[in-house]
Write a structure and sequence with these properties.
With about 80 residues, the chain is mostly helical. Helix content is about 70%, strand content about 0%. The longest helix has 18 residues, at about 35-55. The N and C termini lie far apart (about 30 Å). Pfam families: zf-HC2.
Amino acid sequence: MKRFTCGELVEVITAYLDDALDQPSRAAVEAHLTCCADCGHYVDQFRTTIRFLADPPPGKLSAGTRERLMSAFRNRRRV
């Protein structure tokens, strides 16, 4: 089974959360998460952010603001 480093996990986190990884890669991510508390915390924060941005209460964030934030997350590793 492939073993992910923390840096590699960050690269595939959106695919993992979107259930877009093949089964061996998904299993490798989950194995890493059981051993790495920092990455587990990162995934939890990412899930919370996605949940918040996906359906904000009226007046919280505009659609444009949500899109800019999501774009920043997607492009974060490209900088």
